[in-house]
Amino acid sequence: MQEETKRILDMVENGVLTAQEAKELLEVLGNQSTVITPEVKEEFKKEPYTQENADFIDELKRDFTVVGERFMQFMQGTVEKIKQFDFEMPFGEPVVFQEKVVKEDAQFDDISIDIANGKVEIYPSEDATTYADVTVKSYKNSTEEEAKTHFNSEFVFTTEGNKLRMYSDLKTTSVQVVLYVPKKAYNQISVRLFNGDFIAQQLEANSIKVKTTNGKINWNELKFGQGDIETVNGSVQVQDVEGESIEVETVNGRIYVDGNLKEIEGSSVSGHVILTTKAKEARKVEGTAIAGNVELYVPKDVSLKGEATSQMGKLDVQLPDVTHLNQSEQLLHKKVVFTKILENESEPLRVHGEAKTGSVVIRYTSEGE
């Protein structure tokens, strides 16, 4: 049963099975009677083998039920978007043109972006102006003049009160935006994309939230109070950042976070989770994955209170100066609990790594900070 379960989960990680298909196979597997040979009895005589497997499979089924619901929401949203497409004009070679939209003397502290189809990049402008370089690919209009007229009537780029707002609900038009804004500390940056990547570099804000259904997310050299990233299908890469807290969630994709961060939470259903904090004031680093590995990297000169768990993978906690309070290698329930208390350290950094089928690795940062 253990081998069959691992095969199912490997197929999920490799994209061979969907979450719903995995859930159905696990239900069938859980209903089968377990054949216990003398060798199996000897290996697992200390633990109730059948019950342990049943509990594990029930837990996986609950996980994949949630994942299946998330994918169904994604598919329903996709179908609704497709229903709104105008298929009277056949898809062919697009009409491509570029526009530069400038907002003169714009004053704002919030940025809100909502793009149905297209890529968004945000950078600080060199001359403290606000403008957007837009590349438009229209699959609906036959001439460039028609495409420009349609784009200008539907694309919104304006200021409302204290907010810069960009909006495009064009379904058969790809809108690729490179936005330049004055270099300053913003209150909130909010981005929603249905289909497209997001890149941000050298920005500062109290709150940064990005949500995309299908697309990669890349943050570089950002400073924020609270960061929030959510994607259904796409990898997340966050590097050289500084912030109070960041939470990253993806259904299918790799998560990589590295920066001076006090709290990090990363969760992926199918993908590796790699989290690194270099902040000596860090309070929490938590990584979880169902079908994927978890790697956590923490500063050396801080107090620690941590835990690593995995049902089917390896636990690799290479922290030579910690005390192992508890270590369990039971079937489908591997666990390591550790602690380290330094003088003049008030609250320890809480470290938690959990993987259902993959391995959990915990190390000090290479800088030894």
TrEMBL record:
InterPro entries: Toastrack_DUF4097 (IPR025164), YvlB/LiaX_N (IPR053959). It comes from the Bacteria. Residues 3-29 form the YvlB/LiaX N-terminal domain. Residues 109-324 form the DUF4097 domain. This is DUF4097 and DUF4098 domain-containing protein YvlB. It comes from Psychrobacillus insolitus.
